[in-house]
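Collaborator request, handled under Task 6.
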Amino acid sequence: MSPAAAEERIGPHPSHIEVAQSYMLQSKIQQCLVNIGMSEAQEDQVRLRGVEWIDSVRRSLQLPIRTFNTAVVYYHKFRLKHADHEYNWADAAAAALFTACKIEDTLKKSREILCASWNLKLPSNDHISPDDPRLDLPSKNIVGLERLMLECASFDFRNRYPQKIMVKLLKAGGFDKDTEAKTAWNISIDMYRTFTPLKQSTSTMALSCIELAARLHDMDVSRFADDNDILSCKSWYTSREEILETMRDILDLWTQHRAATLIAPHYELEKFLSISIALNQEAAAANFPRYTLYASERDKQDSNGASKPRNGNEVTSPLTPATPGTTSPRQRLASVIGTRGQNGTTRFMLDPAKARLEMKEVEKYFKIEEEEYEVEVSVEPEKRVR
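Structure tokens returned to the collaborator:
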């Protein structure tokens, strides 16, 4: 049976399975930005403006911090899947906040969110109401983007709230609520202006904010290295490498975009630079890379912690093969389950193990098997024509 004939006998495509990603490291984020063709400067601008919009509107509506956290995470995930020319950043921010209000049970209508945004830009005597007809079209756009928000997050409603653990640790650590604790709270908000919420766990983010606040107030930070202290990374099943990456991400934000943050305008630039130097020296002494690596990337590092080039190409993320000409497990899987939006519907799953088991079972029915037969054929002798 020829391969073409075998493919014709294959039934409907089983569908495309997309597994939710609770965490994604920096290499995956960079690859997503390359795929949508967004430059670093442009990405910074859209990210900071969108998060600032969400923060100002949620303060106006007096929404809790957990709604802000969820909205920003959905906004980040949406931008990693869609190029900037496909949407307006303000509409995406509004849709993310609208979706987060539903998830966190702080229900607000799309018109109320838009009305709060409009009134922030208007004098008090010109404020509009949620029933204003000018909000009709923007409201429809937000409702339409809500579905895309959920799809980009793979319908994963598991969210992280570092402020909850951070407040408990601040109380247990004996920090002053009007100085160090207040600074740590503002740091946790600035942290969401970066991609840290997509990369780090709840405990990592909480400990990073507390230590950074302690460094800003010139406190002794040796307790963070004591394994018997409640503020040690070992007590919360995280690593020093991840905490250093988080603090350095926040410091990069403060040094490069001072005006767009809550903390940076209150300190001199030299303060941030001195803290960055100390953290860089600690990372270099421990041979920590700048960003946490996937297991496949760690195997391709040299002794200095830098990624080794392979056949002229830099080490890529686990989504791409390590050796040119081969296919990665994710690529082989995609050849079986199809590409999103093509060859059938898209299904979203939370359990990667269950998804792999299903894909392994389905893959058996897409294998093209051929059988060879040996047939003896008698050939008559040719007749000679005179």
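The cover message to the collaborator said: "The first strand starts at residue 16 and ends at 19. The chain is about 50% helix and 0% strand. Please let us know whether this matches your experimental observations."
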